[in-house]
Design goal:
The protein is α+β, with helices and mostly antiparallel strands. It is 16% helix and 33% strand. It has a 13-stranded antiparallel β-sheet. This is DUF6593 domain-containing protein. It comes from Ephemerocybe angulata. Pfam families: DUF6593. InterPro entries: DUF6593 (IPR046528).
């Protein structure tokens, strides 16, 4: 008699933010806190911590994002020796269809494309070069009782550290852009090439 395996469709990973913030926030998977984002008072350093690792474990600190005034912003991952310039890791994408703008994320599995969405459901959406219609990850701000959710589809969950870190960087830039736009003040470097103003 042949064994029959039950095939279960893998589900997307939903990382739920406890508030609509990308600087000081706890991120949950289900009911369990799995990440904490901590930013210093002047906003120049953001650390992403793995709450499932022991504090003494070097794997506890996942990434450090440093925003610098005169030098390029950098990101340092726990499994890499050197810091990387954010402008090299997240590069402005070349011309996209329908005049959209985006950032190319250089991952260990090849480049992916973050696009800014007009809808809160896909405030930020990440696509492969093979499928520009269905995102492999997206930031959703439309759910009731959950301020913000980062959804990562199966097959891309090995890139969670990179996707989460890049989403934090881009959401920070979007919030700064929105704040400046609201006050009719625009400062080019803050935009980081993500959003073009006419």
């Amino acid at each position: 008699m042949e064994s029959q395996e039950t095939l279960v469709n893998p589900t997307p990973l939903s990382l739920k933010f406890n508030k609509r913030s990308c600087t000081n926030v706890t991120i949950y998977q289900g009911c369990q806190p799995v990440y904490r984002v901590v930013t210093n008072k002047d906003g120049t350093r953001t650390d992403l911590f793995d709450l499932l690792a022991e504090e003494s474990d070097p794997k506890h600190l996942i990434t450090t994002i440093k925003r610098r005034e005169f030098l390029p912003d950098v990101v340092k991952f726990r499994n890499r020796c050197l810091s990387v310039k954010i402008s090299k890791w997240l590069q402005k994408a070349e011309k996209l269809p329908s005049g959209m703008t985006g950032m190319t994320l250089d991952t260990s599995c090849g480049p992916l494309l973050w696009r800014y969405g007009d809808e809160e459901r896909h405030r930020l959406a990440l696509y492969t070069d093979k499928d520009a219609e269905t995102p492999v990850a997206y930031l959703d701000c439309t759910r009731t009782r959950i301020p913000m959710v980062l959804v990562i589809e199966p097959g891309y969950q090995d890139l969670t550290d990179e996707i989460l870190t890049s989403a934090l960087i881009l959401e920070f830039k979007l919030k700064m852009f929105e704040r400046l736009k609201k006050h009719d003040v625009l400062y080019g470097p803050i935009l980081g090439g993500l959003v073009n103003c006419k």
